[in-house]
């Protein structure tokens, strides 16, 4: 399909860009999507591997989405994707402490008795409601240590942040990363008080929802605490969105060279082979790529936006999938946990191991792995170990095998049935602090830039959250912004000096 002037050109076919494009297409807008790579989804990639033991489905990016991710799961079902629940054992998670795996507490009593925190650390938590709220943003490490104590940082939140964000707590912005917890602090004066209030509110909402379901006769909904995936992996989601676009509206290997002002319609989006004229541009490329695309928009606000984009770092991540026989773990001592039932484990940075975490996909979705086999998925790198980006993948795999031997107290080195790896040089954007005011100030600068550059909208996981559900919601908000912009009387974007 070719039109003289498009309503919107979307740069990037990740989850944010595709969610925006699908929403705009439904609104009747003329939309073109340009993707620099050969496929959709960004880091959301799934792959069936042929191994000597049989076919195995691996995830190169996110492995699951929580049932509370309403925007994503609703959109998935609208595109005929049926979420598949992970095995109930997925609720069991572990943290490496004192040379063994310790279960993450799942109840108030377990929180009181957990060996993850010392008696002193638990008593230290009693002081939390009496600590005054912070007046300014700080690093996660500073904030958690001040409010909850160093043990909570080292043995609970630190490993969690490494596993989810691949981040360094000493560099991460507390208010940009821990929005819920810092929100409790600011609104209720205490994390514990805010959490208790939120739990009570959720209970009231749950009771109200149940009454409405009984009256309406609704079917049972997805559990917000359950983890889900799709039959052919997480990549099925962006793939379904791409397939929903009419033929010819999604171009692959279409690297954008720049965005320019077009005095007759709004903008020109320039690739190596074509120039697209459009009323609006929705740029969902990574921050470092977006910075270069703005060179054709010379103005003071553009320079400030580019400085903000350049200040957003990305952490590299290597993903290593290791297939081994489950019988390998048959001789583990009773105080060890074999990767048979559970989601996986997280590794504190003080452990001496290189891996950030180890997931057990064979336990989450048993049908994706041959019977009698264990699939161990390890993550290496992140902001605390960026040197992984310089390692050959073969070396990374050997490091992982050594760490797995230590992790599970195996008597000899692992001889895997199959091992495969991939490096993401720009895996996850980091919401860091900094002399420029940190991530919150950078986001504010980008908001100001968009206000001064009408018709140009920025999005992606470097803004508004790294979770897939955040990306879906952001894409849908961008679509709404484009619809409202295009509904206004004809106007042409002009750079603001």
Give start-end ranges of low-pLDDT stretches: none
Oligomeric state of shown chains: single chain
* Main sheet summary: 7 strands, mixed
What is the CATH homology-level superfamily of the largest domain?
Answer: FAD/NAD(P)-binding domain
Helicity, as a percent range:
25-40%
Note the overall shape. Answer: globular
What is the count of helical runs?
16
Key descriptive features of the protein:
single chain, 16 helices, 497 residues, 19 strands, alpha/beta, 3 domains, protoporphyrinogen ix oxidase, domain 3, globular, Polyamine Oxidase, Chain A, domain 2, 7-stranded mixed beta sheet, FAD/NAD(P)-binding domain
Describe the structure.
With 497 residues, the protein is an alpha/beta fold. The protein folds into three domains: 6-43 and 235-312 and 433-486, FAD/NAD(P)-binding domain; 46-91 and 314-429, Polyamine Oxidase, Chain A, domain 2; 117-217, Orthogonal Bundle (protoporphyrinogen ix oxidase, domain 3). It has 16 helices and 19 strands. The strands form four sheets. Strands 1, 2, 10, 11, 12, 13 and 19 form a seven-stranded mixed beta sheet that branches. Strands 8-7-15-16-17-14-18 form a seven-stranded mixed beta sheet. Strands 5-9-6 form a three-stranded antiparallel beta sheet, with no helix packed on it. The radius of gyration is 24 Å and the shape is globular.
């Amino acid at each position: 399909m070719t039109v003289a002037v498009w309503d919107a050109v979307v740069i990037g076919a990740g989850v944010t860009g595709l969610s925006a494009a699908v929403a705009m297409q439904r609104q009747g807008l003329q939309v073109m999507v340009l993707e620099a790579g050969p496929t959709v989804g960004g880091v959301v990639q799934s792959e069936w591997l042929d191994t000597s033991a049989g076919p195995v489905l691996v995830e190169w990016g996110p492995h699951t989405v929580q049932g509370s991710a309403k925007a994503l799961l609703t959109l998935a079902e609208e595109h005929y994707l049926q979420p598949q629940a992970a095995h109930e054992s997925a609720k069991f998670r572990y943290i490496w402490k004192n040379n063994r795996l310790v279960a993450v507490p799942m109840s108030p009593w377990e929180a009181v008795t957990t060996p993850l925190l010392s008696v002193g650390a638990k008593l230290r938590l009693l002081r939390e409601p009496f600590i005054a709220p912070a007046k300014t943003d700080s690093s996660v490490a500073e904030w958690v240590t001040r409010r909850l104590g160093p043990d909570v940082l080292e043995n609970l939140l630190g490993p969690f942040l490494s596993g989810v964000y691949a981040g360094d707590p000493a560099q991460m912005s507390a208010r940009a990363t821990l929005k819920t917890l810092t929100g409790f602090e600011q609104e209720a004066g205490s994390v514990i008080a805010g959490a208790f209030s939120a739990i009570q509110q959720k209970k009231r909402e749950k009771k109200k929802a149940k009454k409405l379901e009984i009256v309406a006769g609704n079917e049972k909904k997805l559990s917000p605490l359950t983890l889900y995936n799709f039959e052919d992996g997480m990549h099925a989601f962006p793939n379904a969105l791409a397939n929903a676009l009419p033929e010819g509206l999604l171009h692959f290997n279409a690297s954008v060279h720049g965005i320019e002002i077009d005095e007759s319609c709004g903008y020109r989006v320039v690739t190596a082979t074509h120039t697209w004229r459009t009323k609006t541009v929705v740029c969902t490329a990574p921050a470092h790529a977006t910075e270069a695309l703005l060179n054709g928009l010379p103005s003071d606000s553009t320079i400030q936006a580019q400085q903000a984009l350049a200040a957003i770092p990305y952490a590299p991540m290597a993903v290593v999938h290791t297939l081994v026989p489950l019988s390998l773990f048959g001789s583990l001592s009773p105080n060890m946990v074999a990767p048979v039932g559970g989601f996986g484990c997280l590794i504190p940075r003080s452990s001496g191991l290189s891996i950030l975490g180890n997931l057990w996909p064979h336990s989450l979705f048993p049908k994706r792995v041959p019977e009698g086999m264990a699939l161990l998925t390890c993550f290496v790198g992140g902001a605390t170990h960026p040197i992984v980006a310089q390692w050959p993948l073969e070396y990374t795999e050997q490091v992982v095998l050594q760490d797995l031997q230590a992790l599970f107290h195996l008597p000899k080195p692992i001889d895997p049935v199959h091992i495969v790896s991939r490096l993401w040089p720009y895996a996850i954007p980091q919401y860091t602090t900094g002399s420029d005011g940190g991530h919150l100030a950078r986001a504010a600068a980008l908001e100001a830039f968009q206000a001064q550059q009408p018709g140009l909208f920025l999005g992606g996981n470097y803004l508004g959250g790294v979770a897939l559900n955040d990306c879906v919601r952001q894409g849908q908000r961008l679509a709404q912004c484009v619809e409202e912009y295009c509904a206004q009387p004809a106007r042409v974007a002009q750079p603001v000096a």
